[in-house]
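Subject: mismatched residue count in predicted assembly?

I count 1150 residues in my input, but I want to confirm that the predicted structure covers every chain. Input:
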Amino acid sequence: MNKRRCSTMEIMAVAAAREIRDREVVFAGTGLPMLATMLAQQTHAPDCVIVFEAGAIDPRMLHLPMSVGDSRTLVGAAQAAGLFEIFNYVLQGGRVDVGFLGGAQIDRYGNINSTGIGPDRQRPAVRLPGSGGSADVAALSRRTVIIAHHQRRRFPLRVDYCTSPGWIDGGATRRAAGIYGGGPAAVVTTMGVIRYREPTKNPYLASYHPGIDAQQVQRETGFELDISEALETQPPSAEELDILRHQIDPERIFLK
Amino acid sequence: MNKRRCSTMEIMAVAAAREIRDREVVFAGTGLPMLATMLAQQTHAPDCVIVFEAGAIDPRMLHLPMSVGDSRTLVGAAQAAGLFEIFNYVLQGGRVDVGFLGGAQIDRYGNINSTGIGPDRQRPAVRLPGSGGSADVAALSRRTVIIAHHQRRRFPLRVDYCTSPGWIDGGATRRAAGIYGGGPAAVVTTMGVIRYREPTKNPYLASYHPGIDAQQVQRETGFELDISEALETQPPSAEELDILRHQIDPERIFLK
Amino acid sequence: MRNKVLKLDEAASWVHSGASISIGGFTSQRHPTALLRELIRQRVKDLTVYYHSAGSDLDLLIGAGCVHRLEGAYLADGVFAPIAPNFRRFVESSRIEFEDYTNAAMMARFAAGAMGLPFLPTRSMLGTDMMPGRQGSSVEPGKTAGRSGCKALEMACPFSGELLALVPAVRSDFCLLHVQQASANGLLRIEGQEFLDVQQALAATTVIATCEELVDEEILRREPERNRIPSFAVHAVVPVPFGAHPHGVHNHYDYDPEHLRRYNTAAKSDAAFAEYLEQFVFGAASHDAYLQAVGGPERLAQLCPCQGVGYNPLLKRSV
Amino acid sequence: MRNKVLKLDEAASWVHSGASISIGGFTSQRHPTALLRELIRQRVKDLTVYYHSAGSDLDLLIGAGCVHRLEGAYLADGVFAPIAPNFRRFVESSRIEFEDYTNAAMMARFAAGAMGLPFLPTRSMLGTDMMPGRQGSSVEPGKTAGRSGCKALEMACPFSGELLALVPAVRSDFCLLHVQQASANGLLRIEGQEFLDVQQALAATTVIATCEELVDEEILRREPERNRIPSFAVHAVVPVPFGAHPHGVHNHYDYDPEHLRRYNTAAKSDAAFAEYLEQFVFGAASHDAYLQAVGGPERLAQLCPCQGVGYNPLLKRSV
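Triage response: the counts match. Full output below for your records.
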């Protein structure tokens, strides 16, 4: 596979798909998480189950939804429920194995800001959409995978507003905050994959994408990242790319 | 209408039906409350809505159910839900206007025992079925109507076990217990109809059934009953009896 | 998709003595009664049973000596038994532990378990002798139900000041259900009232569903609005036609008034009930043998419903 | 049965300035958008809006100056607007009050309102800057949301000791919904995902439902399992075909990507949005005029779904 022939979005979708194991229940949001979950279902995890917060459980989508409320999430679905059932019985009930998250800022401990940029909470420099289900997925999934655009301003030491708790201040602080499950397992970015060490929850660079090196990733990160063991991200296979491009997103809704 | 031609059950069913107003939401249990509600629908309250705790909302029953879980509660129903919806959204949500109750003991303030007879709670002389939805209906309906067999031992000064709260100890004690709505409006018995005075909640005999006099009712009651204003219960009309006997309970499941 | 189909005896063997269970259905409807008879045959003991409005399903387990402790709201069988007979006898002779709640409180307890919460508040229970510490309560706070050992608590709402009762979540080891249709993968379809089956299932660690019909999952996926229990919460599926008899199953068969009367008469004494068990459970060593014992195809045909009403309008019900 | 059918302008006139409302649907699906446009035409002001995941439905009300205060979780429109533009601009210029919750917390708040409870516990919210008193919280306890003036509280579960967040119930004056089918008596049928419509409706004092089709109630009563909102909780029914446009309605029409892009572009500035309102709301003084303005029958036909999938697979969605 010629590395130059695949886009960053494609590398990320494949890396994210590989975070999903077969038979897992996946809480997927709009965009790349949908691509990743659909790809996992068509490759190594045929029996993983997607749930969408708007109500669809275990669909066999034929066309990519543009939001989690889209009718396209219902094709062949096992259930058409609603937020009450998804948040109570599926998410808080402890049934979600892996939840996908995104956000405008991701900090050293995987805390996410999707509420507002700037120091003044009542008058933010940039008002973001808000948590939606993000904080819920962050608190209640067995583990989470964060998808992010890797830029220094998006990876500050500390988020301006903690919308979705990651490892909070590292160590056991997440548990101390009353959050019993989960925590970020990986941050799949436009440059690589970040993971967290036990028991400090300090971040390390697990891999950098083809064409990028570890120092570049550190330069675009606003906190110290252990890059000592980073390897190159395993590139997408021809089969994975083919499925992504021709079956999952032929309309190029998310893949750029 | 010749009074001797109708049974006590028929008089009670008619008296109970008259407690229901048109367009009200009625929480009905097995037996006489079903007869009463169905009769009300076919006479003065065509738009009253029956709900059953097992899940049926607003049916148009063709055959009398033998329990509230019976399939017969579903004929023509607007909704087939479950206990979650009925108890949360309908009853606790404050949608029930009148709830019907029964029980083995009814005391001076309309508190009901359907749990156990005798002083030893862990080894009752007679173990009764338990609250079921009775305590819930007693606490959460706008008002309740109690149906009872009038015998002195069933009408003690104080119930052995308070399963379903009535006016508790009278006055404002119900409110003080944290119960905001409702309370017993009437006790329709085999001998007459008892109601409660404001603000003491002391019981009085509102009416005695045809063939019975007020003193007889007092003798079969284990607490003092103001009988000074009691009148004879208005007997069933020919139409009411006809509907009861030929349309509602032709199988004689509840009507004896 | 996974194949979760088991035979009745295999599924029953999952339920170990000492387990906590809940049973789907309501009074005389849609109980997994064939599965319960198999538990009795397999001599399961010391069960803790959480229930709301049970009927002769739970009374059968009690009479067969399978139950150590009860937490629930109502045990009777409508017109057939104003008080469930084995329950009454076992309680009156102190042969069983019990704790009383209301239906709404048990609903809240199962819902809390399903929702992953340790408790739910309710406006019910207040002012009743079911509240611990009340004059009439059988128990003191800190002495009984719930993982924490506390039956219920009173709390002033920190937002409104109103009094509320808090009831602890139920999490049972097993939930045993009977539904109209299921796929091999564990997608379930309930027709008619749901009762509390969805919340009971989701409050259990392991869910065993018996069903009238095993159907292709594609059929169930055509109406996703009507499936309320995710297949990932269901662990075993057992096709058992007439699996709820003598209880009814909406759209499949009516309850059997003859057998329910026979049951409730027998359950009034230990001796008569031992005979009942010998005839209909131990002596009828399989579900097929049971169906023969209760009258076979001829009787079962009399229970079958009219299309359009879900029960048999011609069924003889009064004595 | 009662006849609750009203015209769109009559129903909209029920909603007074200063009222609290919630709006059914989710991001770009099944909002009562025609009713919202009519509220704008009737110059309703100072609304408090409770929401979970809103889209250009609520953003439209904000941009039209109808909203005084927001309490909710998410305001964006999927691919069409990663941040709802009027919302962003109004917040950044301090023209609106707002309070942030999570979707699960808003779900719990609406559910509490529907269930007649003053609060519900949730395992979410903890550890976030949405909790009052946190370093990052915009407000202190006792200063904001809920009838009691408190946004949320932390509590140790009295049964298990685990930390939980308590969130206050939402009780809104109105809930505005759009559904596929309704009877004149107010029995509603939702196809596809319910979103949070059931709980939002039951948490409101008055429910106004617009619908694609007014149907005979007998039809809805044939499948009682599929009706989730009791008619006694619904106060007005307004038949409005294409009443959710530019949002989609499962099985009826897809969202309109062209119009949503146009909307989200216009909503980026006050001036452009004033033009949008003039063209599509004030200038198109009725729902029919609006439908003409967005392309008329020709455009609407392009949104219509294939039987079997509930949306139009051939719809051009990417730019």
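Chains A and B do not touch (no CB pair under 8 Å). Marking this ticket as 'not a bug'.
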